[in-house]
């Protein structure tokens, strides 16, 4: 294999033109989507739209495509990058020439991604993320895989003098694939997900469709027919019940399918590769991504599982890093891990994490407040239903009340916190069991919160702010909260550890 | 090797609750009142405007006095709460951190270690300049939740604090 010399200004692979072109065309059509529909409709109606004939439109479209192609070629020609000893240089732009220089030490993350088009023509894109603001990202959209991997490696080696040796070491020590998801586990993961959200989403969708359909029927004056039809059964309520039950079953099936397909597309061929210092995640069906996790940049670990998943041995680990945008954040999710694998990974990412220290529970005020929440939600639901549908709908309380009681019970049961020498562990969740772990020296700020009503009971909440998210220790006694407050501040301020 | 690993006595740690927090400048109360008055005037004008437009379009008579009454009660309550809350706006700078507490209905006290501060900013609005006040903004790398903005500091003091913090940040690096 010929080794690419990154010290000379380089262009991307010539296939980059296709990628840029494809991307621009897609963007263009997305932007003017509405306009195209308007054109299309007026064409179908056979009217000329402001004296424009179909041929003219066709010519226009061809013209636009040619312009985009020219732009893509120019962009390709003007896009050059090279590596110096300490920085990554990039020059780009057709008319406005931009030169970007990123010091290697400021690079947060390097991703290798591959979308559908890139998969077809066999190139990858390399994305460089820095700790600055969200816009300072760089994407090289077409590189062949070996070059991209080499470039990534070079970017992470801070001293280019030693890079040759490091490369050698890396070559000898073949990285080991630590975890590879099987299709069966992925299927189980999809099935055992918390379907509540997708269920609600699809339920509202189907229900509105159903309503819409009803109106449509009324418009067609089919109502009389239906009324006859219904009256044959005599029991309208029963009929309505059957329809609703069918809707619910259909919705449940759809949401199951939805979750399974979503899990499959995102996590297809999920692979966790262990390097000496970093952990690499590869996954995706249409959009293949490859990301590295650096232990020092991790701010939070969130472990999610639920009853069913626990039984099946499925745990997901989501890693929150600093300054990573929302879309990318989702990619740092490793699903379908066994318990041992999970523990191994946690230990790899957080040095010496032991679940030590005493586990404490929030005050029983927690139960009171969640019961109050449920009560107000219940009153709201009841009044709305009473006004809209009448007294019969109050039967829903037979479902709602037990659910509310279970909610309060589980929310309190799953809530705990544990503070050890170096770590804070916070448990929460109702349906899911969520465990949040963070290192004490990564705290950015601490907030004590107390409402007027909590003051009387001497209750307060503690919010721990980090660079990636805020976690809350809810409803503990104020003295306890203050002693944790003082302890954490002492820990953060007395150690000279950097948060990144 | 200069390494010790003594037991930490949680009772002997510096206590944030024993700290006497400093209230912000009293002149800031005037700014709050002025801002609130402008808001209330806007609200009442909105009620009149609303009545005017609705009655022109549709033939319904709205009870103006009823609406005004509701708005005024809201304004009075709001004013009382913000006056009481003013007393809760307090701050302190310690050797290693900045503390700011505020709020009456939801009281919060936030502490940011100086070693985590990214940069400090001192800004003044037109009104604040008139009263010789300024706002001290402290930015961390965290989510927006951990950024502090201490309003209503005397201009000189804000500048001093800014200097102290800047020096400490640069000293650490």
From TrEMBL, chain A:
Transmembrane regions: 21-44, 56-77, 194-210, 237-261, 371-389, 395-412
Domain YdbS-like PH: 76-152, 412-488
Entries under InterPro entries matching the protein: UCP026631, YdbS-like_PH
Swiss-Prot/TrEMBL keywords: Membrane, Transmembrane, Transmembrane helix
Pfam family name, one: bPH_2
Protein name: PH domain-containing protein
Annotated source species: Winogradskyella litoriviva
TrEMBL record, chain B:
Keyword field contains Transmembrane helix: yes
Domain YdbS-like PH: 89-165
Signal peptide feature range: none
Membrane-spanning residues: 37-54, 66-86
Pfam families per UniProt: bPH_2
InterPro entries reported in the protein's UniProt record: YdbS-like_PH
Record keywords, A-Z: Membrane, Transmembrane, Transmembrane helix
Protein name in the entry: PH domain-containing protein
Species assigned in the record: Winogradskyella litoriviva
